[in-house]
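Re: [ENG-882] Designed sequences occasionally contain unexpected residues at chain ends

Forwarding the minimal case from QA. Structure tokens:
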């Protein structure tokens, strides 16, 4: 409960939507890291090129084309993994849009929360079931982001085999916001086999 504004408020939905948004942005960051690795641009140049494209979908399409042109001939297995991951991200994009663009009724009461208009994967959901559905999407999104970095850093020859030099998204998560999300948000941690040391310094 939140009493910041003088009245008791159930802030479960605002926090849940916030977690989903952070998860989606972390997935976008993992896609960017792939772009950076494939282009071999320095960080600032990579950001300038990647983020001038305003649509998340267009960014993913751009990375997909880079995978075909830069990676496929060298490592078909890795290329296929990336393309599968991008396909999964495209599917999650629709769910993310459903979450951020929907109008909620009774948004400050978890037991009564419902949709003003049924949309997408949230159709027919209400109350705690609605909250759980969004949390599951958040977990799925985080797991995909971690997986992209996991097989990228495990398989890409563009990176040093020394784990201390790998800029792992998982390590970045562990040292910043992801631990707080899982600890305080009640969301289960994504399953991932990667165990990387947190870099002593990070460019992103």
């Amino acid at each position: 409960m939140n009493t910041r504004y003088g009245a008791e408020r159930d802030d479960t939905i605002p926090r849940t939507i916030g977690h989903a948004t952070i998860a989606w942005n972390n997935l976008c960051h993992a896609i960017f890291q792939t772009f950076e690795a494939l282009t071999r641009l320095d960080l600032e140049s990579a950001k300038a090129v990647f983020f001038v494209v305003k649509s998340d979908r267009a960014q993913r399409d751009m990375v997909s084309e880079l995978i075909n042109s830069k990676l496929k001939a060298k490592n078909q297995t890795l290329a296929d993994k990336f393309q599968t991951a991008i396909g999964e991200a495209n599917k999650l994009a629709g769910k993310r849009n459903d979450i951020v663009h929907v109008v909620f009724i009774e948004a400050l009461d978890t037991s009564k929360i419902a949709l003003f208009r049924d949309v997408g994967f949230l159709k027919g959901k209400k109350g705690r079931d609605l909250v759980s559905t969004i949390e599951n999407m958040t977990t799925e999104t985080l797991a995909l982001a971690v997986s992209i970095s996991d097989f990228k850093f495990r398989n890409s020859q563009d990176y040093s085999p020394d784990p201390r030099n790998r800029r792992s998204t998982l390590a970045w998560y562990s040292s910043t916001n992801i631990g707080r999300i899982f600890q305080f948000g009640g969301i289960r941690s994504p399953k991932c086999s990667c165990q990387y040391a947190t870099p002593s310094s990070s460019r992103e």
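QA comment: On inspection the terminal residues look reasonable. The beta strands are 104-105, 114-115. Proposing we downgrade this to a documentation issue.
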